[in-house]
Amino acid sequence: MFNPHLTAEKLNDNHNNMVGHIGIKFTEVSDGCLKATMPVDHRTKQPMGLLHGGASAVLAETLGSVGALCYIDMATQAPVGLEINCNHIKSAREGFVTGTATPIHLGKRTHVWEIKIHDEDENLICISRMTVAIIDKK
């Protein structure tokens, strides 16, 4: 039940929130895959000059939540993060990182997403798994 009306262009129009503040840009939205980039700059680095693990978690949670949004009835349901874990494998000092989210489980009330974040040289920076609750809108 993938929603083909959600495109990267449409998702990039709604950035009056943390996503826009730290520069996340969606680059691919397709059935089974969602990608976005994030700069490694003053907004996303920790004091030691490395990509902040929390910024990686924001990218991962954004991808998991928006990925779930692509598979629900947006008129009656909403995706909310239930649990996320992040293993920070390597760091980055500059450039961009790209997150790729793929669904592991797409149930009626929960989704599970895997998110891998790579640097520009395809080094694995972070691997994350997120459980998303699908709630009814009131």
UniProtKB/TrEMBL annotation:
The keyword Hydrolase applies. This is 1,4-dihydroxy-2-naphthoyl-CoA hydrolase. GO terms for cellular component: cytosol. It comes from Sediminitomix flava. SUPFAM superfamilies: Thioesterase/thiol ester dehydrase-isomerase. InterPro entries: HotDog_dom_sf, PAAI_dom, Thioestr_dom. Belongs to the thioesterase PaaI family. Keywords: Hydrolase. Residues 48-126 form the Thioesterase domain. NCBIfam families: unchar_dom_1 (TIGR00369). The keyword Hydrolase applies. It holds the Pfam family 4HBT. GO terms for molecular function: 1,4-dihydroxy-2-naphthoyl-CoA thioesterase activity. It comes from the Bacteria.
